[in-house]
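Example 9 (inverse folding). The structure is encoded as follows.
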């Protein structure tokens, strides 16, 4: 089932005839959106996800050598042992342990993509922006921006609490799964009461129980 474009763009869908998926599954470390939980489960067991979580696929920058280094901490350790790096450290009167890796940046003939957290050849940059991987990352960033916007102070009201239960065992869900939230207002003379919660997955033609919150009603 295709993810609902309205939920991805606005965080909610008011089309009762919508037959698309309203419960959006995402991988936070990799910054990816998935069509269903089965694909997600396969992803988290894969090499790409494990590399991202462990930091292997991370790029960093050496402030002395002015180069980007891939392969995360392992790559940085290897770079720190090179003759060029050691020579740079000595010329600056520093110790090898005092030089820390920094966030990767665009350098020379390479361009660093903040969205993908990867380095691309500058000559291939246009192709990178058109690529499927970059487009998928852009979609995730936009969706997360919508989610962040929904958490902002609305007319003096804020809600603190965790609505994402993750994957809940059906046996546990059948007996009820609860959470507590705190409703705050910056205007002490305008009390508000939370009277309802709408779930994204309760909308559309294929509604089902979920913990994916799409809107709060006051």
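The amino acid assigned to each position is listed next.
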């Amino acid at each position: 089932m295709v993810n609902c474009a309205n939920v991805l763009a606005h965080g909610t869908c008011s089309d009762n005839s919508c037959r698309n998926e309203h419960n959006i599954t995402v991988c936070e470390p990799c910054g990816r959106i998935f069509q269903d939980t089965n694909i997600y489960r396969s992803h988290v067991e894969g090499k790409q996800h494990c590399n991202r979580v462990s930091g292997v696929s991370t790029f960093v920058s050496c402030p002395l050598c002015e180069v980007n280094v891939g392969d995360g901490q392992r790559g940085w350790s290897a770079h720190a042992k090179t003759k060029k790096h050691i020579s740079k450290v000595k010329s600056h009167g520093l110790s090898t342990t005092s030089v820390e890796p920094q966030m990767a940046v665009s350098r020379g003939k390479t361009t660093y993509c903040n969205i993908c957290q990867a380095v691309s050849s500058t000559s291939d940059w246009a192709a990178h922006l058109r690529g499927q991987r970059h487009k998928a990352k852009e979609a995730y960033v936009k969706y997360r921006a919508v989610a962040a916007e929904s958490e902002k102070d609305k007319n003096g009201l804020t809600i603190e609490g965790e609505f994402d239960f993750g994957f809940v065992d059906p046996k546990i869900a059948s007996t009820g799964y609860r959470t507590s939230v705190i409703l705050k207002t910056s205007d002490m003379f305008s009390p508000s009461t939370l009277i309802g919660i709408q779930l994204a997955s309760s909308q559309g033609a294929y509604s089902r129980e979920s913990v994916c919150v799409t809107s709060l009603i006051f």
